[in-house]
Amino acid sequence: MTYCNLVAGEWVQGATAGLNRNPSDPNDVIGEYAQASVDQLDAAIAAARAAFPAWSTGGIQARSDALDRIGTEILARREELGALLAREEGKTRPEAIGEVTRAGHIFRFFAGECLRLSGELLPSVRPGVGVEITREPVGVVALITPWNFPIAIPAWKIAPALAWGNCVVLKPADLTPASAWALAEIIHRCGLPAGVFNLVMGRGSVIGDAFVTHPGIDAVSFTGSTDVGHRIAVQCAERGKKVQLEMGGKNPQVVLDDADLPQAVELCVQSAFFSTGQRCTAASRLIVTEGIHDRFVEAMAQRMAGLRVGDALHADTHIGPAASEAQLRQDLDYVEGARTEGAVLVAGGGAADCHTNSGKRGFFVAPTLLTETTPSMRINREEVFGPVASVIRVRDYEQALAVANDTPFGLSSGIATTSLRHARHFQRHSQAGMVMVNLPTAGVDYHVPFGGRKGSSYGPREQGRYAQEFFTSVKTAYVQG
């Protein structure tokens, strides 16, 4: 069976199709998924433009009801959809079910936001004149999503876009089309008019530039690599398009001498290794003060020894595979490069020896811990996007803060401490969009803003009520009484 693109309310074949394989067992083919041509992309954008006038001015109750139906079905099918996600992307089944659950909650949250959009009524400085400040939808929005959260990230872009009256063309990552298709199939049955939501699967190298530069697109929301994000920003700026970018991270987790050691170890293990480290909020730099450093490294190694790497669908698996063979190679290349620069390997460091039902080896990486690293090493400058963490030894809190901020990125940061003074100071002075105190750097709520600073993010925040800054435009109207 070939899973088709959704254009103008119809399922249509692509120009070509590609096989989608299970990274836990590459012999397991999940399905064949359509890949669109530029002409098919044109048709999807035209359908969205045709649907926009009626959808953007229609009743808000209809929007709310549709989003609520989507969220309710996602939650009812969370076990099924979670198994699909785990099979396709490689995060463990419990993690995958958690992601699907979050997607359902996102849609239901924005079902309520449809009814809560507010404005302002102000007096003018001129007698007899009133001023009304309202928000209106931007128009047709291009959504480009990554492979590491193939249901949650599309959900947190699609739901606010629809809630505030925009029409959508979604291009999911080529590596994980099944999760996006399953979400699109639910959306298709929720009662939206044809063309309001469109799914166009395919390679970015074929349709990516055409998607971003198309004159029928009013705004672009992108989550992915820094290099691609920079290119999209330039393309949008040249054309006056509204743009929202979520890109890379090199997130620090500070551990101070006064930290609760078991708590610090657990939150570092969760931050660095769960979801195979394939989270933009993962902590890959563990910045540890010298008084606790040796005990921390020993405790980390002991905790890591109990982590089981294996098939994402197996009940006893803690860490699934890398999402692809290319990602596996990248992880191992970074580890080897760090050792060449002088890092000491404490745990992991290679491909994990896991076998599958078919006998073909999946893309498994052993959780890896490196010590004796310095802030200038490549392993501490670039995003690995795998289960690899490096420890940086520092003298005290002041040096820890300086090292934490010594990065071109600024998405998430964390501190483990029992000192209220240090916790509050770090919260204020960490150069990150999100700060975690005695919590993992990964793991955020759906009803509050998500986003970073510096090279991690560009444009308005995602999620919660702050999403309206991107998906709506402010209008000021003057009315003579």
Topology readout:
Elements (H helix, E strand, L loop, with lengths): L1 E2 L1 E3 L2 E3 L3 E7 L2 E11 L2 H20 L2 H17 L1 H12 L3 H21 L6 E4 L5 E9 L2 E5 L7 H12 L3 E5 L5 H12 L8 E3 L4 H10 L5 E5 L2 H14 L2 E5 L4 E5 L5 H13 L9 E7 H16 L19 H16 L3 E4 L20 E4 L16 E7 L2 H9 L3 E2 L1 E5 L3 H10 L4 E4 L15 E2 L2 E2 L9 H4 E9 L1
Parallel strand pairs: 1-5, 8-9, 8-11, 9-10, 11-12, 13-14, 13-19, 14-17, 16-17, 19-20
Antiparallel strand pairs: 2-3, 4-5, 6-7, 7-23, 12-22, 15-16, 18-21
Helix pairs in contact: 2-4, 3-4, 4-5, 9-10
Main sheet makeup: 7 strands, mixed
Poorly predicted runs are none
By CATH reckoning, the class of the largest domain would read: Alpha Beta
What is the overall number of helices? 14
- Mass-distribution shape: globular
Secondary structural class: alpha/beta
> Got a strand count?
23
Nearest-integer average pLDDT: 96
Major β-sheet strand ordering: 15-16-17-14-13-19-20
Q: Please tell me the total number of domains.
A: 2
The share of residues in helices is: 25-40%
Radius of gyration: 23 Å
CATH topology category name of the largest domain: Aldehyde Dehydrogenase, Chain A, domain 1
CATH architectural name of the largest domain: 3-Layer(aba) Sandwich
- Beta-strand residue fraction: 15-25%
> What is the assigned CATH homologous superfamily of the largest domain?
Aldehyde Dehydrogenase, Chain A, domain 1
